[in-house]
Design a protein that fits this description.
Shape: elongated
Structural class: alpha+beta
Number of domains: 2
Strand content: 5-15%
Strand order of the largest sheet: 6-5-7
Order of helices and strands: EEEEHEEHHHHEH
Length: about 210
């Protein structure tokens, strides 16, 4: 399979363009359909590694620590991200909705962070990670399925509604979820196209 790091394809209309790094604040768009091709973020791909590690730490805290703490007449109850998602399942029915919530709120973001960390760790040493092409395709596929910000908004709405009846406080997991959601949005907005330059380009041999 030949690799062309200098070329990029429009995700909407499949037009082919020559890639050129842009300065911060500039955005390259397709001349045919106006879809965004890449953005000039002004930072090399290896600068993302500390942010990705921070996202991994904060998201891990959000998954294991209480997101909300509820107090009702001296009776305290704590809700974790796992419990909140699994609460959507009901008795004897298939917990399909709960499984979807677990995937969108926990599995997809965790995979996104893990794959990006793996790629950036090798990119720091100017090497393509094992399984580079497959992992890049997986990252692109996972991008619309990571919905940490939606879950964060849901917890805010739930906390506001419950605050009129109960004493509700944000737990450590809630603050960690807010930090992780912000970091995930930041790292997923960066242009990963420069990573393709790490792939060795096979010589074009023609046999007559």
């Amino acid at each position: 399979m030949k690799i062309y790091p200098s070329l990029t394809v429009c995700p909407q209309c499949d037009s082919v363009y020559r890639y050129r790094p842009y300065t911060p604040g500039r955005t390259a768009v397709c001349q045919r359909c106006q879809a965004v091709l890449w953005r000039g973020d002004g930072s090399a791909a290896h600068h993302l590694l500390p942010l990705t590690i921070a996202a991994a730490v904060t998201f891990s805290v959000a998954c294991i620590s209480p997101v909300l703490q509820v107090d009702f007449h001296g009776v305290n109850n704590e809700v974790t991200l796992w419990q909140a998602a699994w609460a959507l399942s009901s008795g004897e029915t298939l917990p399909l909705l709960a499984l979807c919530a677990l995937f969108l709120l926990m599995a997809a973001p965790a995979l996104q962070i893990s794959l990006l960390s793996w790629l950036l760790l090798f990119a720091r040493y100017r090497r393509p990670a094992p399984g580079f092409i497959t992992l890049m395709k997986m990252l692109r596929w996972l991008r619309p399925w990571s919905m940490v910000e939606v879950g964060m908004l849901g917890f805010v709405v739930a906390a506001v509604k419950l605050s009129s009846l109960l004493e509700v406080a944000v737990g450590p997991g809630g603050w960690a979820l807010a930090a992780a959601g912000t970091l995930i949005i930041i790292i997923t907005r960066h242009d990963l196209h420069p990573l393709w330059a790490l792939m060795p380009v096979a010589p074009d041999n023609h046999h007559e």
